[in-house]
Structures are given as structure tokens and as C-alpha cells.
Specification:
Elements: E1 12-13, E2 17-21, E3 33-39, E4 41-49, E5 53-58, E6 63-69, E7 76-83, E8 88-93, E9 97-101, E10 112-115, E11 120-124, E12 132-135, E13 140-142, H1 143-148, E14 163-171, E15 176-184, E16 187-195, E17 198-205, E18 216-222, E19 225-231, E20 236-243, E21 256-258, E22 261-265, E23 277-282, E24 285-291, E25 302-307, E26 312-318, E27 328-330, E28 333-338, E29 341-348, H2 354-357, H3 367-371, H4 378-383, H5 391-404, H6 412-421, H7 424-435, H8 444-460, H9 467-475, H10 487-493, H11 497-506, H12 512-524, H13 527-530, H14 537-548, H15 574-578, H16 592-602, H17 608-615, H18 620-638, H19 653-673, H20 678-700, H21 702-710
Parallel strand pairs: 17-21
Antiparallel strand pairs: 1-29, 2-29, 3-4, 4-5, 5-6, 7-8, 8-9, 9-10, 11-12, 12-13, 14-15, 15-16, 16-17, 18-19, 19-20, 20-22, 23-24, 24-25, 25-26, 27-28, 28-29
Helix pairs in contact: 6-7, 6-8, 7-9, 9-11, 10-11, 12-16, 12-17, 14-16, 17-19, 18-19
Length: 728
């Protein structure tokens, strides 16, 4: 028997972060989150709470971009969705009022509203398709058709005591489908609404144990079938396959039986599950939240990824606080409310074989495949360099790596024991041997334990410290802050600022308190001490470019020239203008290396809510210095002549302005009462004023720019052409 190995990696849950806080109901029966829907791209979602608010988030920044609220006394009864065809949001309040608005709208009361004749259950939307409205009594309408006659009569599809429990939409190659489940006197049914042709099919789910109904449903589409996965309170996960094409059912015809197969029998501990959910990730993996880990103690709820092909647990993460039985998944991210936090957990599910599912795959590779394996460089790791090294270089590097592996090395357990007592030199030799292995990514859990042991001994023994090994471990991308929470603080204690820089670059989950600790250390460091620190070369190149521009003439900056400051420029001879020196705001207020370290802090992910209290601990002198540095960056970035550093890590203009706002929010009273900061605040005000003027001017030509996008491009263009476009 032969096996084909597709991947050497198991599914993985990466370190999560908090998208926002929760305000659960008083009896903690629900999380306060009604729904999560994707918007525009993989990095934006719209979150609807159970009361009155809809909020648009940029997920990677953990930041709310816009928020809309209905009036006091009104309630959102359907989670908002995004209509990608019209670039509008759609939600339902008080079960019958459909609200439609655009992102630039501020007040929902001034947006479009339409009242329908029957209660709505959900609105479902898919990319580039028209939203579909599902009514509580089972009828379905396209949104445009419904809005053309809002008071049209709506038929009742469900029986008298039948109620919808769950619904979703599924997109096939040719059409959009709506599926929903109902419950009636202990029986569970599935409805499949097709639109081409317009038919409704009803299925009866097989009965489980008496008194047990599914806790959650999840659906996916493949090979002309809808795959329905549902979780029962006893931990059993079942699968049913529903054909997309089927015969139209006669009105009043009995429901068709829907066969099921047992997918997983999960351990639930004592009793039955009360709040849990299962979500299909791909054809071989299911995420489950609210169940205990098989090897953990009772009373702890976990998020786990199970391989359904081989019945194996592949990844697990404990979720603190109460689990509400809610789980959403979009763009390789899981969204989970728990306790008082709404968390985002990135995940990965490679194609699996039996060996990888058991965690024992050591895939043999041919010489040809080894020759095509590239070795990571700083550019690859940080910026995914466009230029690929030549195959000759790759082959030479691969052979060097293979040679270094030929010598026998200790096992992971032996290295862990060695760390407890051996000298720095011995530990460094063995760990470097471990890191030279080609399967280092398979050792992720071991590397986390190894780093924690190194940090623990370094904290306990003043003479023991292995900076180069810790730096290499961070560069593997197998570590995160929660796996080794004392690493950044150890680096600060040892004044190992290169290691601090790496942690800020590679750890996606650094708490705001630790970020602020780094900020305080960096900004209070004398420039003379900072210049002695070895830092990542490319980040220094960026600062050198910025600071070299201090002597260059300043161009127009997004409609704002700092030399003018909106003041009268009349007067002054040409000779006087030539002798004009560089304005103080154009001179970097910190040294080269200190600027590099501050840039890393500016690029670290954070939540405004959690960062703001820590920023209030900064001294006024440090706040003013940081604001002056942010002003310097803003001016440099705004110059039309400033080259865009595409290949280098650098803060974005948005990140710079966000930090300005945060610092002003945290210290505005002190800054407003300090005479020395009057000029700085005036300049910041001028920046905002110039940006408002710029966007106002851009708004005047917005229509013309949209027309340019619609123009057909002439594909018959030679090597050289001139095209004249007239804008009216």
C-alpha cells in the first residue's frame, strides 16, 4: 500500500487578539453579539450587537472604523450585511423595518427605511449577488423585489408550531441557495430554497436521543451537494449531504428523510453541553468551541480543530470566561465571543494525510524538490521579496543545510534538560543544531517550551543569557507572546533592543501594557546609548533616508507646505528666502536608532480601548517628544518628493495619525495648559486643516475619477502612445 503525502503540517491555531469588548446580558445568557459578516475584503467585518449598534471593524488593526446606532427604544433584530453590488449596508430593526445606508452616512434615521408586512428572520448576502430576505414564517424574497412593494403579502410556509432555528446562504456555480432549519415538537427539519427554478424542498433530520436537539449548524458546498454539519449536546457531530438539484416537492407533501452519518464523537465530560458550536473549515477539518480538551481538566472550555478524516485533534486553545455557543469563520479567522472579550483567532488547515494527522510525518523529498526550496532571508521574512534567488544559490544553500544536519543531535527532551544546568556555550550549540533542521516548523510546540525554559533560567540566573538563540527562535515565526510572555520584558531588562525589535515585528499578540513598556524604555533612552545598539539593517535604511531629507528642499505636502503654515508669505527679499534654514519641525527630534525603535512601536497592533490607559502614564516631556517625532514623520511622508519605500518596513500615514490622536486623547488637558506646546498643537491643527482642504478638493473631481475607471482600455497599444482625456 502506498501513501501520498500532501503536507507535513497539521492544522494550527495561532495567537488571537481582542477585536472589541463585550457587554453580555445581565444573566449572561447571551454575549451581546448578534452577528458578524464580511465586508469588502478579508480584513473588514461588520458586527451587529443584540441591541442597537452596528460597527465596522478593520480586523488586523483591531479598530472600529464606523459605527451606526438606531434610536432609543428601537432594536436591531437582524444582523447587518454588506451588499457588494450597491456598496450599501442592510439591517432590520423591530423585525419589520429594513434599513439601508452607505458607509459615509452618519445617522441611521436619515438613511433609507422600508416597513414590510411580515416579521423578518434574516437577510443573507454574498459577494456580487443580490441580498435575500428570509421571513420568520419561511418565505423568501430578493431584496430588490421586496423593496419594490414593501407591503406585498407574504405567505406562511411553516406549520403552526414550527420555528426557524438557523439559516445561511450557499453559493454554487450557477445560483444562490438559502437553507434553514426549523424545530417542531422535538422534530428538526431542513428547508432548501432554490431560485433557478424557484422551488422549496423540505427534509426531516433523523431523530437523535430523546430530548436532544442540535446546538449548532454549519454548511459548505462541494460537488453538487451541500454538506450540513451539526453538533448535538452529547458531543456527537453528524454530517448530512443535501443534493443541490432535486425534484420540486408538491405543496403539502411529507418531508423527505435526510440520512446522516456520524462525523465525530467528541468527549464532553460529565453531563451534556449547553453552549457549544461547530464550524466547517474545509472538507477535512471542523472547529469546535465550548468542549473540554481531551487531556485537560474539567471546567475548562477550549477551541479545537479536529481532522474528520482521521478522527484526530490537531489544535486546541483554552478560551477564558463563559462560552456563549457562538462561532463565526471568515478568511482563515475564527470570531469567538467569550467572557467579556470578542476574540479573533487566525488558523491554518493544510491538506492532510494520515501521517500528518498523527503528527508523525517526515516527508522524504527528492533532490530536485530540495533544490527548489528557498532559504528565508530578512527580505523574505519581512517583506516577501519579489526577486527570487537563483536556483543555483538555493541548491548551494540547501546542500549546506543538509551537511549541517548530518551530525547527530540531541532530542527535544534532552535539550530541555540540558538548558536547566549546562553552560551558555553548550546550550547554544545544541539549540543551533535543532534550528538547522529542515522540519523546524513541525517543532512549533517544542520551540515554545524551549524558549520558555531559556527565558525562565535567564530570569533566575543573572549570568545566563543567550541573546542570539532567542533571536533565532523568534525569527522562526513559531513563537508568540502568549507562549513566552516574559521574553519581551527579559529583553528590556537585559537592554537587548535588537531582540525587542524582533519581538515587535513577529509577535502578533503583544499586550498593550508591554507595548507601552517598550515605548517608555525607547523614548527615555539617551540618543548616545541608542546609537550603540545593533538593529535590523533595513529599518535603519528607512530612517537614514528620512533624515537625509532634512537638508533637501521641502515640496508641497498633500496640499500643505509647512513653510507657509497658512500665514502671509508676502515680503522678504530673494536673498532672505535663499538663506532660510530648515524649519525645526523638519528636523528629526530623535536619533537614528531611537527612531527605528519608535517605528516598531508605531507598527505594533493594538486596541485603542486597552492602549489608552497605559499611554496616560507617559510623562508630559515624553509625550511632547513623541508628538514632535510623529509630526516629523507626517511631514516627510506627506512630501510629494519623498520616495515610497515599498521594500522596507515603515509606519503608514494612517498609523502615524492614529498615534497622534491617541496621544492627544490621553494628554490633551496637560498639553493645552503647557505654554511650550502651543506651537506644536497649532502645527497639528494645521495638518488636519490641510487634509480637510485636500479631501474637499478631491471630492470635487470624484465623479470624473469614477468615469475614468469605467472607460474601456484600448488593448491595441504599441510601444509608445499618447492619449488625451478631457475632464468636464
Amino acid at each position: 500500500m502506498s501513501s501520498t503525502f500532501f503536507s507535513s503540517s497539521m492544522a494550527a491555531l495561532y495567537e488571537g487578539y481582542t477585536l472589541c469588548g463585550l457587554t453580555p446580558s445581565q444573566n449572561l445568557s447571551n454575549s451581546g453579539i448578534q452577528g458578524v459578516e464580511p465586508v469588502r475584503d478579508s480584513d473588514h467585518v461588520v458586527v451587529t450587537d443584540s441591541r442597537r449598534s452596528v460597527t465596522l471593524f478593520k480586523v488586523s488593526d483591531q479598530k472600529s472604523l464606523s459605527s451606526w446606532t438606531v434610536k432609543q427604544g428601537q432594536t436591531l433584530t437582524c444582523s447587518a450585511v454588506y451588499n457588494s453590488k450597491t456598496k450599501e449596508y442592510v439591517a432590520v430593526s423591530d423585525s419589520k423595518v429594513i434599513r439601508i445606508w452607505k458607509e459615509e452616512d452618519i445617522h441611521l434615521d436619515k438613511a433609507f427605511k422600508a416597513t414590510v408586512s411580515s416579521d423578518i428572520w434574516r437577510v443573507h448576502s454574498a459577494a456580487e449577488l443580490e441580498p435575500v430576505v428570509l421571513f420568520q414564517r419561511g418565505a423568501v424574497r430578493f431584496l430588490d423585489s421586496l423593496l419594490s412593494a414593501p407591503k406585498q403579502p407574504i405567505e406562511e410556509v411553516l406549520a403552526q408550531e414550527e420555528a426557524i432555528r438557523w439559516s445561511t446562504n450557499v453559493v454554487t456555480e450557477s445560483q444562490q441557495l438559502v437553507i434553514f432549519t426549523t424545530e417542531q415538537k422535538g422534530d428538526n427539519f431542513l428547508y432548501l430554497q432554490r431560485f433557478n427554478p424557484n422551488t422549496l424542498q423540505k427534509y426531516r433530520l433523523e431523530r437523535g436521543e430523546p430530548g436532544l436537539s442540535p446546538l449548532s449548524f454549519s454548511a459548505s458546498y462541494k460537488d453538487k451537494h451541500i454538506r450540513l454539519v451539526y453538533l448535538y449536546p452529547n458531543g456527537h457531530v453528524y454530517q448530512s449531504l443535501v443534493p443541490v438539484r432535486g425534484l420540486a416537492a408538491d405543496e403539502g407533501a411529507p418531508a423527505l428523510p435526510l440520512p446522516r452519518s456520524l462525523l465525530l464523537a467528541l468527549p464532553v465530560g460529565e453531563g451534556l453541553l449547553e453552549a457549544a458550536s461547530a464550524q466547517v473549515l474545509d472538507e477535512a477539518h471542523v472547529a469546535v468551541v465550548g468542549l473540554p480538551h481531551p487531556s485537560a481538566g474539567a471546567g475548562k472550555d477550549f477551541l479545537c480543530i479536529w481532522n474528520t478524516n482521521f478522527q484526530t485533534l490537531q489544535a486546541g486553545k483554552e478560551m477564558k470566561g463563559k462560552i456563549y455557543g457562538q462561532l463565526w469563520g471568515y478568511s482563515n479567522k475564527l470570531f469567538i465571543p467569550h467572557g467579556k472579550s470578542f476574540s479573533v483567532i487566525p488558523y491554518e488547515c493544510p491538506k492532510s494525510s494520515l501521517a500528518s494527522a498523527l503528527g508523525k510525518l517526515r516527508q522524504a523529498k527528492t533532490e530536485e524538490s530540495k533544490a527548489s526550496t528557498s532559504v528565508p532571508s530578512w527580505n523574505n521574512i519581512l517583506h516577501e521579496d519579489k526577486a527570487n534567488p537563483s536556483k543555483t544559490v538555493e541548491t548551494r544553500k540547501t546542500r549546506t543545510t543538509r551537511k549541517s544536519q548530518s551530525a547527530p543531535s540531541l532530542t527535544n527532551d534532552q535539550i530541555m534538560e540540558l538548558i536547566k544546568t549546562a553552560s551558555v556555550a553548550e546550550v547554544q550549540k545544541e539549540v543551533e543544531g535543532l534550528l538547522s533542521r529542515t522540519d523546524v516548523q513541525d517543532l512549533q510546540p517544542s520551540l515554545g517550551q524551549l524558549a520558555a525554559s531559556l527565558v525562565s533560567r535567564s530570569l533566575g540566573e543573572e549570568a545566563f543569557y543567550t541573546p542570539s538563540i532567542l533571536a533565532q527562535l523568534v525569527q522562526t515565526r513559531c513563537l508568540c507572546h502568549s507562549m513566552c510572555p516574559d521574553l519581551v520584558l527579559l529583553a528590556l531588562e537585559k537592554k537587548d533592543y535588537f531582540l525587542c525589535q524582533l519581538c515587535l515585528q513577529f509577535f502578533p499578540d503583544i499586550p498593550e501594557a508591554v507595548t507601552c513598556a517598550c515605548l517608555k524604555t525607547f523614548i527615555s533612552m539617551p540618543d548616545s546609548d541608542a546609537e550603540k545598539v545593533n538593529l535590523e539593517p533595513e529599518s535603519i535604511s528607512l530612517m537614514e533616508t528620512l533624515m537625509a531629507g532634512e537638508r533637501d528642499p521641502v515640496g508641497l505636502q498633500n496640499g500643505f507646505s509647512p513653510a507657509t503654515n497658512d500665514m502671509d508669505q508676502s515680503g522678504g527679499t530673494e536673498a532672505e528666502k535663499k538663506e532660510t534654514t530648515t524649519p525645526p519641525e523638519q528636523i528629526c527630534p530623535v536619533g537614528l536608532h531611537k527612531g527605528v525603535l519608535l517605528n516598531e512601536v508605531l507598527m505594533t497592533a493594538y486596541s485603542d480601548f486597552f492602549l489608552l490607559p497605559h499611554l496616560k502614564d507617559l510623562s508630559p516631556q515624553h509625550v511632547v517628544l513623541l508628538l514632535r517625532y510623529l509630526q516629523f514623520l507626517y511631514l516627510k511622508y506627506s512630501q510629494d518628493a519623498f520616495p515610497q519605500m515599498h521594500g522596507l518596513r515603515s509606519p503608514t500615514l494612517t498609523q502615524i495619525m492614529d498615534w497622534v490622536c491617541l496621544l492627544l486623547d490621553a494628554h490633551f488637558t496637560v498639553l493645552a495648559m503647557t505654554p511650550e506646546t502651543k506651537g506644536l498643537l497649532h502645527n497639528l491643527h494645521t495638518f488636519v486643516k490641510s487634509q480637510v482642504r485636500l479631501f474637499s478638493e478631491l471630492g470635487k473631481i470624484e465623479g470624473s475619477l469614477h468615469e475614468l475607471n469605467k472607460m474601456k482600455v484600448n488593448k491595441d497599444i504599441g510601444q509608445y502612445s499618447i492619449e488625451v482625456i478631457e475632464l468636464f
